[in-house]
Amino acid sequence: VLVCIVVGAVVGTAANGNGKKPSKESDEESISVSVKAVCDVTLHKEKCFETVGSAPNASRLNPEELFKYAVKITIIELSKVLDGFSSGEHMDNATSGAMGACVELIELAVDQLNDTMTSMENKKTTPFESIDDLRTWLSSVETYQETCMEALNEANKPSLVKYGETHMKNSTEMTSNALAIITWLGKIADSVKLRRRRLMATGDVS
Predict the structure, then answer these.
(1) Most buried residue among 26, 169, 175, 178 by CB atoms closer than 10 A?
(2) Transmembrane segments in this chain: where (predicted)?
(3) pLDDT tens string 50-91
(4) DSSP H helices in 18-95
């Protein structure tokens, strides 16, 4: 039920936000209302359209399904980052501590997101039922990546910092976007709950 309400809210927002119809030649015409609404709340919009917008059958997915896809592709990207840090490249006596710390931190991030996906895929929970937990987990993943960069900076080796920034750019942006999406879904869920309570208080809900 809540998913339907969210979709309705998305459609309504899109309709109110456009005073005029986009031209048929517009690139956004092929982007679904849900994808646009989801990506509009993110900090890294271009990355969102590039990744979440490329989901299979994206035009038919609702915001909840798009969030799940956002988490899934973030796991894939973080796994690539982990492979890079684990390869031993750029590692020497002076940098082994920082690189080792990053490996441990990214492993924690991947494990955290895998647990999140497993829970949702096994239908033990839905994003709407565990919004607070999902926000906490994604915030932790952000922190792990930030702590990794701090460790690289402390190694005082510019080439290592550049390596970290380059290899984690996509994963940090994608994590940020996933966190923004679940935060937005949470606000919608909260507004729906508040409306229901008000209706119940006035006796308009049986």
Answers:
(1) 178
(2) none
(3) 999 999 999 889 998 999 999 999 999 999 999 998 887 767
(4) 33-40, 45-51, 63-86
